[in-house]
Amino acid sequence: MLPKISGTRTTLRAVVQRVSRAQVSVGEEVVGKIGPGLLVLLGVAKSDTQADAEYLAGKIIALRIFEDENGKMNLSLAETGGAVLAVSQFTLYGDLRKGKRPSFDEAAPPELARELYEFFVSKIREAGFTCETGRFQAMMQVELVNDGPVTILLDSSRVF
After folding, report:
1. Is residue 90 annotated as part of the catalytic site, yes or no?
2. 55, 80, 128, 135 — which has fewest CB within 10 A?
């Protein structure tokens, strides 16, 4: 049985930041780098499916969070020609409701998390967008210039 939280189940989580530039490094090696676009920190739960990843990828590329000529957030990646930097981030499932040390019980095991992370990236690329990535399960350093700042929290939840 799926865990219930306020009428929804645990789902993919994303922290989406509008950036003027971002990069992710492993050690001294830059493994992913973009100019203007979106940095997506993606967390995968045990109960997530490809449908969740596809839904969230579509939602993110359609976000109208870039400014138009009037300074209003009205444009998406398609209108701006921006790119995506997707970084797997299991710590988005850190649960601190009990104690001071996070529990990651709801985070997907590495095999499922990798599969859905790679599927998410493939959906963004299939839609015609540049999508750079971090390195799955590596200790990474993420650098970004948050443009705005604009930071959006998303998940793939739907009421069941």
Report:
1. yes
2. 128
